[in-house]
Write a structure and sequence with these properties.
Strand content: 15-25%
CATH architecture of the largest domain: Up-down Bundle
CATH class of the largest domain: Mainly Alpha
Helix content: 25-40%
Shape: globular
CATH topology of the largest domain: Glycosyl hydrolase family fold
Structural class: alpha+beta
Largest sheet: 9 strands, antiparallel
Bound molecules: 2-acetamido-2-deoxy-beta-D-glucopyranose
Number of strands: 31
Radius of gyration: 27 Å
């Protein structure tokens, strides 16, 4: 997708030494095949996200390139999510004229107005999206923080038999999921055409409802008339509508329209708020005062450029497809979460509010750690936002969207986010004592509804040291499944808490939480075998297993819910009858002991056995890189003294499973989780999230520069003997700031202090980074090496 030359020029002057990195952002990656990305116009973390919506069965991100039809142009979206389609509130739809020049001659309901678009007209670049409908109407859009701006251009030749050219633009009180509840309302001003109103909708993966408000203003042409519509009929005589949900499957279509006297282009400015229409109007007036499309677009381009140009790579030998994979991944990490500060009813205007944490179970592993490197102050704001949610809703969330509590997938993984930030971010005004209070509450207090916050089964967890299968829990309520994955995640959560308490000088708590962080061992059944579904023995013995309250073993096939489990009876998500591991197998969760790899390696029979098991996990495709628990397993060879195999595995997955094409993502992007996996892997520093540790592999480029937004210093990683065909991917030796460096990991000061890491590459594994002293930290001591 080529960039407007106007912006290429702007970019080149801002960044003399490298070419425009935004030209390598392809927002359409993941727009089909279930990637569910939001490919439209937005600012980094923007609340206004404008795009065309389609009627695809996989339209979670609004627009798709799977041959579906366009139903409208709405202004609020999430990116990469599973669950139901999120947001998509308040769609606009343009007609160049209505049949017989009567308003009823235009199609109002979403189902009947859905229409194809011209594939060749599609343009999606940072801060911009446009396409031309089959009718010939072009819709271009851009966005400010809480306001989107649409420019509708009508065909210059009237369609046959239409002498009168009277465009109509409607606004539908709908959302992507058709979840509107009772009593949405809309009013249209007879003179100006300004539309204000609100609707109550359901969050896409959570409980409760939310109300969103809008304010739409029209500019550019002369208004002929306006009014409201209900279902397929409209009238200019009525200016206000309140509409119920209706009793049938979907809510009854309803909204407003404006007609124009001629076919001059119309610009629609759409202000948004979760507080009031008045605020939606004032947001719009403040952010886009004069409907200036180019100025709004160019401000968005600048905002993206400012973020993305913090990473610069040497392009020698690298094709544009690789660069597109990389920079598009980076771009997607900053679409969500969304900054709603000042626009939510719960919190006051000066309290940070971020939303669309979708979900922290996905985000803690690499997206938020990536942003801690690249966009540290935004992570500070997100942490403050999480604390605001804690203040007003009582708990840190796992999943949270549209002001509502979302469904927790496993542990209280916001604890991991807090630890990661605590260890890497300082010199900021985060209230760490409140962080401590919040994470300790996760560990100690069971919520009544642990569906959506905190942890369940805490009595058993504390008395038995594991979450039992078929637990007896009368204090709090949630889905009583996932006992193995919850035990593993709670264990790691407690380790993360121990690091925060350690930093805050509370030694008693450090010991307590370090101790409970070893609870994972209680579910390890040393005698458990594993057979493939064809009956052959995997040859590995010793797996986690479910355990009952009476401390006897239950049973789950270690391959159930793995990528190779084709049994239609396996139920692996949040269903009441689902497995004891969430969205993955015991095989994969076997490796989820991020804080004590030394003990896990011993438990598996030493480093060689550990590597054999990890190879088997990948080679047999038991793990699936399209879901986040797979991420760390790509790099865990480091802990067994085989950092070269991590590099090998990284290249096994990229680009094979992450192609810079529309269907190129291996499943939901999950905000920008998949994007961050690509970005961090290609930089060659992958975090063990929640710890001050980055595992080193050679970058995919001859060199990478990363400038810290905190210190302004630039960290540099360069490859000597770089080979763009990736045969030389094994580190032979390394220097850090000119000194020999044999550890196979570095800490965050690499970025803040702008250090220089030089890697000398070869075609075979070497002894670099393989000795016990070179291995990353682990709670227990390494043995048997
Ligand atoms: C437009 O692209 C979609 C997705 O690739 C495809 O299904 C559809 O057939 C294309 N339409 C035309 C007219 O080529
Ligand atoms: C899109 O709309 C066109 C025209 O209304 C219709 O013929 C076609 O079947 C629709 N396509 C899909 C995928 O629904
Ligand atoms: C006029 O324009 C509309 C919309 O563009 C189209 O559907 C209709 O067939 C045209 N012809 C007449 C006679 O209205
Ligand atoms: C348009 O007018 C013609 C002639 O009066 C009529 O037959 C037709 O039903 C009208 N169509 C609509 C959609 O109003
Ligand atoms: C919607 O409005 C009707 C009529 O005013 C009222 O009876 C009803 O309670 C309202 N429903 C909700 C959910 O507010
Ligand atoms: C907006 O930008 C486009 C593309 O660069 C240019 O053609 C157009 O003249 C600009 N319009 C205004 C009003 O500046
Ligand atoms: C990295 O920074 C160094 C020092 O400023 C510079 O010489 C080099 O060209 C930069 N490399 C890239 C890839 O931007
Ligand atoms: C979030 O929004 C607030 C209020 O507009 C602003 O002060 C803050 O800088 C924003 N933070 C980020 C990371 O966008
Ligand atoms: C972080 O903390 C260390 C140790 O207290 C201090 O030396 C350093 O200047 C701090 N860095 C920032 C960016 O605040
Ligand atoms: C332990 O509990 C399980 C599940 O209720 C039961 O099947 C088993 O017989 C019990 N074992 C003993 C020794 O009580
Ligand atoms: C670009 O380079 C990568 C890595 O060498 C390779 O896998 C890919 O096929 C190349 N793509 C194109 C379009 O040449
Ligand atoms: C650094 O490593 C190189 C190559 O292995 C070796 O020749 C050199 O002596 C080492 N330098 C120091 C100070 O250990």
């Amino acid at each position: 997708m080529s960039h407007l030359s106007f912006f290429a020029l702007l970019v080149q002057t801002a960044l003399a030494q490298i070419s425009d990195p935004l030209q390598y952002v392809d927002q359409l990656i993941g727009s089909s095949n279930g990637g569910n990305v939001f490919p439209g116009a937005t600012l980094p973390y923007g609340m206004a996200k404008a795009v065309a919506d389609t009627d695809s069965g996989s339209n979670q991100g609004g627009f798709t390139t799977d041959g579906s039809n366009v139903t409208g142009f709405s202004s609020m979206h999430d990116s990469g999510t599973g669950g139901n389609p999120s947001l998509g509130d308040f769609a606009l739809f343009p007609y160049s004229s209505c049949i017989n020049d009567t308003v009823d001659g235009c199609d109002f309901p979403k189902t009947s107005r859905a229409t194809p678009f011209e594939n060749s007209s599609l343009v999606a670049t940072p801060g911009y999206f446009s396409l031309t409908l089959q009718s010939g109407v072009n819709a271009a859009m851009t966005a400010a923080q809480h306001t989107s701006l649409f420019r509708f251009t009508f065909p210059s030749t009237p369609s046959e038999g239409n002498s009168s050219r009277s465009p109509l633009i409607l606004m539908d009180l709908t959302d992507l999921a058709n979840s509107r509840q009772d009593n949405a309302s809309i009013s249209v001003d007879g003179t100006t055409g300004r539309m204000t109103g609100n609707g109550r909708f359901l969050p896409s993966f959570g409980s409760g409802t939310y109300v969103a408000y809008f304010c739409a203003d029209f500019s550019g042409s002369t208004i002929r008339d306006n009014g409201i519509f209900v279902n397929s009929r409209a009238s200019a005589d009525v200016k206000d509508l309140m509409i119920s949900r209706g009793i049938n499957a979907g809510p009854l279509p309803g909204g407003a329209f404006v007609r124009f006297t001629n076919s001059d282009p119309v610009t629609v400015r759409m202000g948004l708020s979760f507080i009031s229409s008045d605020q939606a109007c004032s947001n719009a007036e403040a952010e886009i005062p004069s409907f200036d499309f180019n100025a709004t677009h160019s401000a968005a381009v600048s905002a993206w450029l400012e973020k993305i140009s913090r990473i610069s790579v040497a392009t020698a030998g690298i094709n544009s497809s690789t660069l597109t994979n990389f920079y598009s991944g980076i771009y997607r990490t900053m679409v969500n979460p969304q900054n709603y500060t000042g626009n939510v009813p719960l919190a006051s205007a000066d309290e940070m509010w971020f939303d669309s944490f979708y979900c922290i179970w996905d985000l803690f592993r690499s997206q938020l750690p990536f942003l801690t490197i690249l966009d540290t102050y935004s992570v500070v704001d997100m942490i403050k936002g999480l604390l605001t949610i804690y203040d007003y809703q009582g708990w840190l969330p796992d999943c949270h969207m549209s002001l509502c509590k979302g469904y927790t997938q496993g542990g209280s993984n916001a604890d991991n986010v807090m630890a990661d930030a605590f260890l890497k971010i300082n010199g900021t005004d985060i209230d760490w004592s409140k962080v401590y209070e919040a994470v300790v509450k996760d560990a100690e207090v069971e919520p009544y509804d642990w569906c959506c916050e905190g942890r369940g089964g805490l009595d058993s967890w504390k008395s038995l040291g594991y979450v039992p299968v078929q637990d007896f829990d009368y204090k709090g309520f949630g889905t009583m499944t996932r006992s193995i994955s919850r035990t593993l995640e709670y264990s790691y959560n407690d380790f993360c808490i121990s690091q925060i308490t350690s930093g805050l000088g509370n030694q008693g708590d450090v010991e307590k939480y370090q101790q409970s962080s070893e609870n994972w061992v209680n579910l390890f059944d040393a005698g458990q075998t594993s057979y493939l579904f064809n009956g052959s023995n995997t040859g590995f013995t010793g797996f986690f297993q479910p355990k009952f309250l009476n401390q006897t073993w239950g049973y789950q096939d270690p391959l159930e819910c793995s990528n190779i489990d084709t049994n239609p009876d396996s139920i692996c998500s949040l269903q009441n009858n689902a497995a004891e591991t969430f969205e993955s197998s015991i095989w994969e969760y076997s490796f989820f002991v991020p804080h004590d790899q030394a003990k896990l390696i011993s438990t598996f029979g030493g480093p060689k056995a550990f590597v054999r098991r990890l190879n088997y996990l990948h080679d047999q495709q038991i793990t699936y890189i399209g879901n986040e628990p797979a991420f760390l397993t790509v790099f865990q060879y480091h802990y067994a003294g085989r950092p070269g195999l991590s590099a090998y595995r990284s290249h096994y997955y990229i680009p094979e499973y992450f192609q810079p094409t529309e269907p190129g993502l291996p499943g939901n992007d999950d905000s920008g989780a998949m994007g961050s996996f690509v970005a961090l892997s290609m930089i060659g520093l992958f975090p063990n999230p929640g710890q001050n540790v980055y595992l080193i592999i050679p970058p995919y480029f001859e060199s990478v520069n990363i400038t810290s937004p905190v210190t302004g210093k630039t960290a540099c990683i360069s490859n000597v003997n770089f080979d763009a065909s990736y045969n030389n991917i094994y580190i032979q030796r390394a220097t850090l700031n000119g000194q020999n460096y044999t550890k196979n990991w570095i800490d965050h000061s690499f970025f803040t202090e702008g250090k220089e890491l030089v890697l000398y590459l070869g075609r075979n594994e070497s002894s670099w980074g393989t000795h016990v002293a070179d291995l990353p930290p682990s709670l227990s001591a390494y043995e048997g090496f």
